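Section 5: illustrative case.
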């Protein structure tokens, strides 16, 4: 079964409690829920190979004995119509492409699991910790800390790529990237990865993570490179304005799979000034291309 079809078919699945027929013998504790409280989820990385531990985990997908209890926005108090010893599984959920209507358990975060006692009409508090699956492939990472760039402007761009060191604008570390269009009449910024990257097709999840803040919308997409031909994929992701630093998980799975004959791919970023924005500024950091 295609992974994302399964996720989306489960996206709005919520627990349904069936009423027992009145003629059945009812356990006195039946119908009195236990509660699982989850306020936040901790996320850790090995920075040298996995990059930043920055995340935007917004939801939890809670399973009891491998059965889905429900999806809850954090912080959450989850009712469970069971007591005694049970296996609890918590998947970390995100808003795919930053859209609230497309909440999914992030396929690269390993679930948190434990076996614990549940007590009717009582709350147990969990403090889940998650990390990347060891099988995650980090194809490209850019944190703007090294002297050189892994990005270059394209031939149609009339604006350069910048690195900033001002502490008020850097997300973490000593530097962040900046797409700045300070001096009109600049009308277009576009950059792409210097290197091409081999990515899986056929529905294998491919995501781009990054931190950003911006006063102007910007686009993320890919170039699909076939033998002697490079095509800019028209289905791009438009990122909305964000006054403060934000985190987004961009799903590139479908875009990658559109070109079955592609040998490899470039990732690109593009900025066109929005109406009423005289000096578009897009700050980015901690880019990760993973599958």
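Designed sequence:
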């Amino acid at each position: 079964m295609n992974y994302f079809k399964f996720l989306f078919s489960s996206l709005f699945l919520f627990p349904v409690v069936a009423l027992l027929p009145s003629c059945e013998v009812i356990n006195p504790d039946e119908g009195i829920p236990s509660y699982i409280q989850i306020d936040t989820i901790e996320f850790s990385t090995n920075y040298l190979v996995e990059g930043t531990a920055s995340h935007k985990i917004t939801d939890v997908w809670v399973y009891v004995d491998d059965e889905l209890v429900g999806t809850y926005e954090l912080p959450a108090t989850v009712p469970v119509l069971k007591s005694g010893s049970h296996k609890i599984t918590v998947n970390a959920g995100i808003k795919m492409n930053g859209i609230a209507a497309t909440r999914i358990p992030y396929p690269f975060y390993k679930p948190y699991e434990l076996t614990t006692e549940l007590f009717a009409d009582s709350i147990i508090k969990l403090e889940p910790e998650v990390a990347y699956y060891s099988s995650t492939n980090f194809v490209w990472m850019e944190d703007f800390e090294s002297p050189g760039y892994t990005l270059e402007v394209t031939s149609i761009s009339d604006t350069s790529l910048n690195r900033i060191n001002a502490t008020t604008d850097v997300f973490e570390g000593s530097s962040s990237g900046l797409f700045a269009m300070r001096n009109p009449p600049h009308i277009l910024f576009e950059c792409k990865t210097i290197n091409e990257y081999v990515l899986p097709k056929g529905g294998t999840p491919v995501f781009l993570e990054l931190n950003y803040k911006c006063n102007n919308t910007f686009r993320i997409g890919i170039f699909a490179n076939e033998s002697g031909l490079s095509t800019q994929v028209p289905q791009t992701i438009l990122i909305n304005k964000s006054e403060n630093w934000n985190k987004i998980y961009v799903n590139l799975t479908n875009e990658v799979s559109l070109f079955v004959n592609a040998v490899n791919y470039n990732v690109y970023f593009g900025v066109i000034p929005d109406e009423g924005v005289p000096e578009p500024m897009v700050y980015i950091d901690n880019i990760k291309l993973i599958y």
